[in-house]
Amino acid sequence: MSRVIVDVMLKPEIHDPQGDAVLSASHRLGFSNVSRVRQGKRFELEIDGPADEKEIEELARELLANPVIEEFTLRSAD
Amino acid sequence: MSDKDTIEVAAATGDQAQPHKELGLTDDEYGKVREILGRRPTAAELALYSVMWSEHCSYKSSKVHLRNLAPSAVQSEKLLAGIGANAGVVDIGQGYAVTFKIESHNHPSFVEPHQGAATGIGGIVRDILAMGARPVAVMDALRFGAADAHDTARVLPGVVSGISFYGNCLGLPNIGGELAFDPCYIGNPLVNALCVGILKHDDLQEASARGKGNKVVIFGSRTGGDGVGGASVLASATFDDASGKSAKRPAVQVGDPFMEKILIEACLELFEQGLVEGIQDLGAAGVACATTELAAGGDGGMHVTLDDVPLRDSTLNPAEILMSESQERMMAVVRPDNMAAFTKVCEKWDVEATVIGEVTDDETLTMTWRGATVVKIPPRTAADGGPVYSRPMSRPAALDALQADSPAKFPRASSGADLKDTLLKLISAPELADKSWVTQQYDHTVRGNTVLAMPEDGGLIRVDEETGLGIALATDGNGRYCKLDPYNGARLALSEAYRNVAVTGATPTAVTNCLNFGSPEDPEVMWQLAEAVRGLADGCEELGIPVTGGNVSLYNQTGSNAIHPTPVIGVLGVHPDVRQRVGAGFGTDGARVILLGETREEFGGSAWARVLHGHLGGQPPAVQLDSERILAAVLAAGASSGLLASAHDVSDGGLAVALAESCLRGGRGCDVSLTGDVFTDLFSESAARAVVSVVPGREEEFASLCTAHGLPAAVLGTVTGDSLAVRDVFSVTLSDLRSAWEAPLPALFG
């Protein structure tokens, strides 16, 4: 079995209202030196046998990320 | 785009090549900009003219035709603001006014369905807000490719989730709309959003910058790289242009409904305290559009310091700042002595507000950036002085053959079993099936004033708690009828929306429209557009109600395949007392069921022809606007005298589908008899008809009401039992009807 982590983030130019909300909440709570927040998602996949990078990329593009507004990175967790 | 392209540099480097074509300006248009300025435009000016003169913002292809929609004096009686304003405003009595408008967000919704549809709601809500009104409800008219097409499975759920996300978070009820499927919309879905707002007469706001020295304030979200060039590139060209290279896709705009909510509350408080001299929402073409339109609408001058526009992305250059379509932003003109109070209100609502310039009297829009002048133009040349085209038009070559290809050639069910089967096939077609899968994702009762919402024919909102004054709204459009005959198709759409408002008991009062067509560069599409506009203008004249505004969406085509011409018509009605509203469902056992209006053999473009035979051809049903007016008068009188237990319009799928819907809506069956040709009686789509049930004991009163108006009224039977029974023909249980009707959408979209 192999484990793969897929991190999905909004593309840098895309507006992230959730990140902005977390930023302003940080300031309200007194964490005043936080200057920017971008929020994303992390998927941990467990694969039977060795991980086929191409296949996981396809899965990420089709299902885990919305390639129109998001980008993703894959890395092995083994 | 050069960062340092100032007007001095532009004047000195007149020969420098500029990317006007990439920005959507033709050689002639670019030449005209140079002529106006007496030099080449700077990069920022080029960006500004390209978005302001885009099809989306300038209506350059449709303007010559839209002039026909200007209401006559009689029609304008109740208009407080009309075409050209952010949205039309109609007097509804008791000191109230209503503003409403429908707008397309077709192209963004294809690229990114969820955000595209969400920001469509956001944009139309800000248009309504800019008139000084509190937005109170939204509606959506949606059209997709075939229901079982692969891309529909991507686009539809995204669009619906975007609408529900934004509308529900914003706290606006979604009270109706449409959902239609046709293969012609594959790749070009139509997402038209309507918003309605309520104001007192004195609250009406102006989109103009007057008074030298007044401050120009941008407030709401910060400006980022979202949707740069969206209007000029995306909404004003087909996706795969002839050169084969894909157009530059601008960054998708992402909506933030919570920001919009505080922006609404902040604006309403600013209006209430009288702190705003002029206001404009930022939609397509962002700061470029808001500054030029405010300046052009006022004394004609403004000075803007672009460095002061609060940015989310500090790398934006002047052209990008001007073209950005970041959401949830507004621009106001404020007297200097009101600035402190203005800032205080914005701080209270946690809305960032920044002075970016001031009103001048030099008839010039000047913008500086990093100490240099990057824009210096006469603002009216950008806002109103754009090109106007009388594009070539030609009647589609295939139209005669299409109109001659009548569905009369197809076999019609005649046995009871076959007729029942036809009904079941119709109500299980995705277009006629239960829409709950979509509508249950929308909050339709928030704010507590919703009286009727889908699946009723029209949405109905209470305006005044004491008097019961209300407003009804419906949208309709039938691309299939318009394909067969755009002139009459537009009149039929108007006719149906008018009727859908009337069945609630409201009196239809005003019209908005969203004209969805293919490429204006195709003469056959231009002919369709011209015909549809002519039809709408004539129809409104005949019905005596004004067009208050609208929106045009062109280039809805892929390659040479244009969508069906699809004018979507919204009608607003005034309801004297919502306590006497009439619903579509059979709710009273023993109530007499009556068909109002006349049925002729009309199957061109019908649901039967499409669902049973996959056919589109012939002539659409005859338009009966005089009868439509009489029908509406009877429905309004019947509702206010409490004679009607239910009223439902008869349209797609004919009487059979209307009866099935009234039965399912009310949870009661009916027993009816037909006297004419059974197939025509059941499935013809003749206009100006409604099926009503009358409060028991009031039958004679209602009969004399119909007689007095000269309205044909045929007694069909009574509301009874738990089957839809057509005597001597067939009977189908409500549970069989319900399973056929409810199954399709969940099966398709999960």
In short:
The complex is a heterodimer of chains A (78) and B (750). Chain A is an alpha+beta fold and 78 residues long.
Characterise the protein shown here:
The complex is a heterodimer of chains A (78) and B (750). With 78 residues, chain A is α+β, with helices and mostly antiparallel strands. Chain A contains 2 helices and 3 strands, in the order βαβαβ. Chain A has helices at 17-28, 53-64; strands at 2-10, 40-47, 70-76. The termini of chain A are close together. Chain B is built from 27 helices and 28 strands. In chain B, the strands form 5 sheets. In chain B, strands 8-10-7-11-9-12-13 form a 7-stranded mixed beta sheet. Chain B has a 7-stranded mixed beta sheet with strand order 23-25-22-26-24-27-28, sandwiched between helices. In chain B, 62% of the residues are buried. Chains A and B meet through α1 of A and loops of B.
Which class do the helix and strand fractions of chain A yield? alpha+beta
Overall shape of chain A: it is elongated
Chain pair sharing the greatest interface: A-B, 12 and 19 residues
Q: Number of helical segments of chain B?
A: 27
Helix content of chain B: 25-40%
Largest sheet entry of chain A? 3 strands, antiparallel
The average pLDDT value of chain B, as a whole number, equals: 92
* Total domain count of chain A: 1
Specify the number of helices of chain A. Answer: 2
Protein structure class of chain B: alpha+beta
- Please identify the top-level CATH class of chain A: Alpha Beta
Mean of residue pLDDT of chain A? Answer: 93
